Amino acid sequence: MSIDVNPVCDPASLPVLEAEHLTKNFVRQGWGQKSVLTAVDDVHLRIARGRTLALVGESGSGKTTTAWLVARLMSATKGTIRVLGQDAPRTSDRPGLRRYRQKVQVVFQDPFAALNPVHDMKHHLIRPMLSLGVTRSAEEATERALQLMETVGLTPAREFLGKMPHQLSGGQRQRVVIARALAAQPQLLLADEPTSMLDVSMRMGIMNLLLDLAAERGLGMLYITHDLAGARYVSDEISVMYAGRVVEHGVTDEVVTDPAHPYTRLLLSSVFSPEHRGVLSTVPDKETSAEQAGQALGGCPFAPRCPHVMNICRQAMPPLQKLEHGREVRCFLHGGHDTGGTTPAAAVETSSQQAPENS
Amino acid sequence: MSMQDATAGASHQEAPQKTRGTDPLFEVRNLSVDYLSADGPVRAVANVSLAIRPGEVVGLAGESGSGKSTLALSAARLLPAWTASVQGEVRFQGRDLLALSREELRAIRWRKLAIVFQGAMNSLNPVTTIEHQILDTLRAHGEHEPIKARARARELLDLVEIRHDVLKRYPHELSGGMRQRAVIAIALAFHPDLLLMDEPTTALDVVVQRQILTRLLRLQEALGFAVMFITHDISVLLELCDRIAVMYGGRLVEMAPADVILEQPRHPYTKGLLRSFPSLTGPKTRLSGVPGSPPSLRHLPAGCAFHPRCPLAIDRCRTAVPELREIGTDHLTACHRAEEEQE
Fold it and tell me: What pTM, to 2 d.p., does this model score?
C-alpha cells in the first residue's frame, strides 16, 4: 500500500519519521501450545518536522508497543522505519543504535522510574551527551546541562543540577527526563504518556513545555496518550488505535469535531466534560472486553462493540480508506458499501469519491 | 435488563425517596488527622468541616497529598489508632462515628455506609470466586440465610449489569471494569445511605469509566443514596456532582455547587485546577495550569499553603491561614482575597 503524501507537510523536507507496515507479533508458548498475539498490526506513521502526531487508544491498543518499535527498544516483526530518510538500525546493531539515539529520544511515562535514584541530575544529563558524542569535554557538557535545565524551566539551574531524584517532585523529575532526552539533540521525540503519572496541576506545564520545544526546535513528536482532550491540545494530527491497528487518522481538529470511525465516536462521547452535565449520556456499547474483541478473527476487531455493525464487518478486515484532507478510516461505513443509513454524511461523501481499495 | 427491573429487584426495603433536605446525612466537623511517623506527626487533614445531605452527590477534588483519601478513611474510622490520631467529630445519621464502640460501628459500616476503595479492582481476594466474596460480605453483615443471600447476590449483579456466570469466576478472569463493577455491587449489598468512593475509576479506560459512572449515577437516582466521590479529575466531578469540595495541603479551600465551581470559582487553586484540563470542544487556547509543585505535608508553607504558587499572594497570605467562610449562597472559600475583584 502506498503512503499518501500528507497535505500538511512541506514536500521539500523529509519527514522526521516514516513508518510503514509496522507489525509486532508476540508469541506465547507453553504446554506444547503456541499462540500469537499481534500487538501492532500494519501501522503507518508519518511525522513532519515541527509537528506532533498523537497516538490515542485504550490500554492494550498497542500504542506503547508502537513507540517501543520506533525507539528500537524492541524489534519489529515486519515493517520499515525511516528517520529523516534513513532506515532505522536493527536492534542488534549497537553502533547503529548509538547513532540512531542521537536522532530519536524517548520521554517515558513514569518519571519516578526513569531516573537512577543514586545519581544526581548532572549525571543524568551529562552521561548521554558524552556517550553519544554530542559534546567532547565534560566542561562543555556541564555548560550544556545548565542551559538544558533553564530550557525545561528548572531554575536556578546550578542548584537543580546537584539534586538527587528524591529531592524533586514528579513534575520536576519529568522535566529532567525531558531535558535528558534533549541532551542528545534529537530530531524526533517519543513521549509515552508523559503526564499520566503527574499531579493534575502540573500536567499543563509539561504539555506546554513539549509543545514549545517541538515548535522552537522543529522536533517531530509522537505523543502517546489515552486522553483525547490532551491529545487535542498538543497535536496537529491524531491516529486512533484499536486492537493494534490505526482505525482513524487525520488532522486533530477535524477528527475531534467530526469523527468518522464508530470507535473514535465512542471514545469522544466517553470523555467527561461539564458540557455533558445533567445528560447522563449512555454510551452505546456492548459488554465486550478488549480480549474478546481481539478474538473476532478475520473481521473488524471493533465489530463486536460497533453500533453500526454490518455482515461484512464480521467477515473481512476493512481497508484503510482515504477521505478528504488526508483523513484515513478503517471502516466499511466509508468504503462505498451500503451503510443502511447509519452515518449518512461521511458515508455519502466517500461513496461519491469511490476511494480505491488496496490490494 | 431495564432500569425498572433493577430497582424493583433492589428495593426490598421501603421505596427509596430522594429527600434533599437541609438535615445532613453525614457531617464532618473540625476533623484533623495526624499520621504518626518516626519524625513526629504529619498533619494530613487540618480542621475540615463538610456536610453531605441525603441523596446528594458530593465531589472531593484534590491532588495526591491533599488529604482527600485520608479524610474519607478517617471519617469511616478505617485508620488504625497506631498510625494516625484523629480529632474532631464525624456525625452520620445523628451519631458520632468516632465515639462508637466496635460493635456499634459494625452495625453501621457497610449496612449504612459503604466504601469503594482506591484501586478497588485489586481489593478482591484473588483466590476465591466472585460469588464467594459477595456471600462473605452478606454473611459478615447479617444475612445468614444462604438461599436469600444467593438470590441477593444475583440481584446485585443485575444492578451493575454483570452476567450471572461471572459469579463462578475468579477475579483474574475478569477485566478491570468487570472487577470494579463487582466491587460496586458488593458495596451496594445492604442499600447503604452513603457510598464513599475513593478514585473508583482512575485506573480504567475512558469508555469503561464512562459506563460504570453512568450506571452508578442511574442507581444513585433510583435508590437515593448519597455519594462522596473522591478524585483528582475535576472534569468528572463537574459533570456528575451536585456540589464540589476542593482540598489543598490538607485543608478545604473551596466548596460550592458544581456549576458555581465551574463558572464562578473564587479560590486561585480552584481556578488553576480548571485551567489544568484542556477542553475537547471549546476554543483551543493555551492553558497555564498551576505553576510550581504541590507542597509536602511535612513542610507545609506557613500561612495559606497555596501562597508559593498563587498569583494573588500578598503578605497576609504568607503569615495567616485563611479561614473557610461563606462568600455566597452555599459557597465557601478559604482565601484572603476572595471578595476582591480578580482578573
Answer: 0.85
